[in-house]
Write a structure and sequence with these properties.
This protein folds into two domains: 189 residues, no CATH class; 61 residues. Helices cover 29% and strands 27% of the residues. The protein contains six helices and eleven strands. Strands 3, 4, 5, 6, 7, 8, 9, 10 and 11 form a nine-stranded mixed sheet that branches. The longest helix is centred in the last third of the chain and has 30 residues. The protein is elongated and about 100 Å long.
């Protein structure tokens, strides 16, 4: 007896079409990174789709990455002398996965959106600026150093939609592995993590010992208060009833303002040098 049931018309789930040439890809069980045998594109197999798979070539070795970290620590965002006071605990190199989206907005504006494709405490890595034209085809020799994605593409696409980026405006999606050094360091008995992206040397950190803003707010408030007080002198002079009252009040105001300004300025400089 012959089997008359129609042949399955759907592509079996373990066969995908290449994003570039449409050729049939036959991944092994569990294989997620693949090179197309026809056009040699590198692709990533999500559960439901195939996307291009790129990596950014590192130009920073560990010594250069450490130098970039030290520059950032010595910079204006972080607490003074962090570069000298922080104690480096560990460093680890890894190709970290990010989902890459080319967003074509309704008004024609094009932008690149990135989202971490694996868990990372430094979510700022989404702000990585990819140097144009520097993406290369992913290569299986990088497997040992690269983290596979654990955040599904669908989940990120949904999340983007919630942020007013409809799926139909996404012109291109891809998986990009970014080389990065993760540096753990200690400061004042607290541990922090900073990421140095090894393509361009960008430094990313969510939480770090930041410059205290309080002293600046205090000096700002003090300045406003002092000038508010002395600006009442001409008014008091005018209300005093004496004809020369307003003149004396104004003169007093000018003298005090000229005296107070440099003192407050010096105080602000002193605070800037301290924190
Ligand atoms: Zn292909």
């Amino acid at each position: 007896m012959s089997d008359l049931s129609p042949a399955p018309t759907q592509t079996p789930v373990n066969v995908f079409n290449c994003t570039q040439c449409g050729g049939l890809l036959h991944p092994d069980e569990g294989q997620i990174f693949l090179t197309c045998p026809y056009c040699s594109s590198t692709v990533y197999l999500d559960k439901t789709q195939v996307v291009f798979h790129w990596y950014l070539a590192p130009t920073f070795d560990e010594a250069k990455a450490r130098a970039a970290l030290a520059r950032w620590m010595a910079g204006n965002q972080t607490v003074k002398d962090l570069d000298k006071k922080a104690r480096l605990l560990s460093s680890a190199f890894q190709y970290f996965p990010l989902w890459y989206f080319k967003h074509q907005a309704a008004n024609g504006k094009e932008s690149i959106l990135m989202e971490p494709a694996a868990a990372i405490s430094v979510s700022e890595v989404r702000n990585i600026k990819l140097p144009a034209g520097d993406l290369r085809k992913y290569d299986s020799t990088l497997d040992a150093d690269s983290q596979p994605p654990s955040v599904p593409l669908d989940a990120v696409t949904k999340w983007l939609e919630e942020r007013q980026v409809p799926g139909k405006e996404i012109a291109e999606r891809a998986l990009v592995h970014i080389p990065m050094y993760q540096f753990k360091y200690a400061y004042n008995n607290q541990e922090y993590l900073a990421v140095v992206e090894a393509g361009t040397g960008g430094v990313f950190a969510n939480i770090f010992p930041a410059k205290a803003e309080m002293p600046y707010q205090v000096i700002g408030g003090l300045t406003a208060l002092i000038f508010l007080c002395i600006s009442t002198f001409p008014v008091i002079g005018a209300l005093s009833g004496y004809p020369e009252g307003i003149l004396i009040g104004t003169a007093l105001y000018l003298v005090l303002a000229l005296l107070a300004a440099p003192v407050l300025f010096a105080l602000a400089l002193w605070i800037a040098a301290k924190v």
